Amino acid sequence: MNKPTRLPLLFLGHGNPMHTLSENRFTQLWQSLGQNLPRPRAILVISAHWMESHFALTGQAHPPTIHDFSGFPPAMYQLQYQAAGAPDLAAQLQKRLPQWQLKLDQEWGYDHGTWCILRHMYPDADIPVLQLSLNSQASAQAHFQLGQDLAALREEGVLIIGSGNIVHHLGRLTQQTQAYPWAQAFQDQFLEKLLARDFAALIDFEHLEQANLAIPTTEHYLPLLPILGAIQDDDDLGVLNQELEMGSISMLSFIADLRNTTEQGK
Length: 266
Prior knowledge:
Low-confidence stretches: 261-266
Strand content: 15-25%
Number of helices: 9
Radius of gyration: 17 Å
Number of strands: 10
Mean pLDDT: 94
């Protein structure tokens, strides 16, 4: 069987860290992706949970597992994801993309935006992983343009994943099963723009209706933008999940793929 010449792109809603201890519809999706996508030589993750005043890459051979949360059961703090790092790839990107002044970080590791998903996608932790930080000083447009410059990695066996949530308002969480109308309206609007490939509107997200409620802070939205930037004209877009949970958290996930390597879900 011929290997695909371009790996897919993924944006995955990661939501509540407790999902990683569960067997549910979200973890089943992550498992299915790991089982059905072409096997990458490395994984690059842009997580909502690493923000610096610059763009940075994990530079260690063996990044630690970071338990960057509080108030969870002891079992959460015992979880480890011991995939090797990708310091050679990090150094190559630093040289190839001097315009972004990428810094190699020797302290950060795999935060829960990364390992909560990857421990279901690739439970053997046998694929090297590289994390890319968000940049608090850079615009949404800059995050998108960085994705454009990272797109070539898809041709080199690297799976690029954005991990965040397009609606993320912790202050409005509820135990009710139905989403807030404003959260549903924002997600519907987002999906319309995404599938129409109106990426300019998604970059300029502050002007979308209900954005002030859906995105009170930007860190969970920004991982989306490098993924949008790396999408090519001949990629198909497939929605993998569009569920809203706890009223104000969107688990919306999608794939951009040159070929149909996974079954599209709802």
